[in-house]
Amino acid sequence: MRSRPVILATFCLTAIGLAQVTPVNRPRVWEKYIQPGLTYRMEVDPATPRVIHSIRWSQGAPGLRLEPALAGRTVYESGASNGRGTLSAELRATGAIAGINAGFFGPSGDPFGVHIVNREIISTPWPKRTAFAWGTRGAVIGTLSWEATASVNGVSVAIDGVNQSTVNNTMMLNTPLSGGALSGGPEVVHVVLSTPQTLTVNTMVTGKVTRVVKGQGSVPVEANTMVLTAANDKASIIGSWPVGATVNIRNQFAGLNMNNYDHAIGDGNLLVDQSRVAVRYAAEGFTEEFGGRRHPRTAIGQTAQGDYWLVAVDGRQSMSAGATLEEMAEIMLNLGCERALALDGGGSTTIGLSNVILNRPSDSTERAVTNFVLLFADGNQPAPVSSFRLDVPTGMVAGTQGLARLLDADGRVIPDQEVIWGCSGAAWIDQAGNLQALTNGEARVTAFSRGTLVTATIPVQAGPNGS
User: Fold this and answer.
1) pLDDT (tens digit, 9 = 90+) per residue, 147-157?
2) Is residue 6 part of a domain?
């Protein structure tokens, strides 16, 4: 069981850039201390325009750990979610103190690219794309490859992936984390194996054949089992394996020494390597439209001192245009990263801290995604203070500005140094509580302080130009 985190208790504004002393077109920066080893940074550049949200974790700080996580209990889940979920729901469900969206994914919920948690393989690398791996020995970035075979009596068949749908003469290995072995055609064979082992990096799993299922689209993958699912020629081979046969499954990673790391996430794009811009989106299979134009972006990076940065850039909005991959690389370099990877962006870009979604997803609401990178903090959660309330405008007009303040039971203003601000819908907010109404509709303001989340809704009317 994951223990509940220590949720924001005190804050300290450490960066320069308060609005009243900063020229209009100069960037403003707020840094708020969360707890030892954890800081939130917001940068607003009105000239571009661009809004950058960054969470810094100092590895060595006690009680903090960074892990990838699936949105659902399994890769494939029945129902409308298809194994996907929102970051805010994930933060509530897991008790993580912070997180970002992670890799690209398909409509069925399958992660595109490597996903390894505590050395357990959930998804395998996407060819030619970059992975970010980390653990107690630090972090590394680079291209991963993976090979695996399943053999019976010396006859081996190559495995093409883990927890993926089987099509076109491929064979996939499905673990209990898959939620079910899937296939894309009728010429398929599922070989169900009994094994108490988990599939971990660079190891061998031994299982016994308990069932051979032919011509069935899917079969469940239960605890203490794995399922080999093959199509066409490979199906004819494993379909001949008898019940009771011993199957040896070996897997091996190459490109990065995965024996040194506990976790990995990826599928591109490389941003920074050896403290230099290293963008190569064409080589990783991405277009100029994707890499060379400004979009919302999500990234993870590590500094030479061992600090990790989780970063999200808002985009496709009037207050923030987004970033190209080259610009995203420069952002990560400015944060001191010597290595960095861009994750899924666009409408998927989301960053959260203690149940506050900090950025403004470009789809207007959070997109349900397949996986996340989450930061956990061991300890006890402060008891919420029910007497806090928000003082916000009773209404706004698009294009105008206002001020939000968090008040205690006696009506005293809680200093902004102690408040994490967020806003969704028709307005935007900075970390000084300054509101900007953007469009007609409702704005939902959130404030988090001393273990307490408070929300308020503001109606926003259209401005003179109809916005």
Assistant:
1) 999 999 999 99
2) no
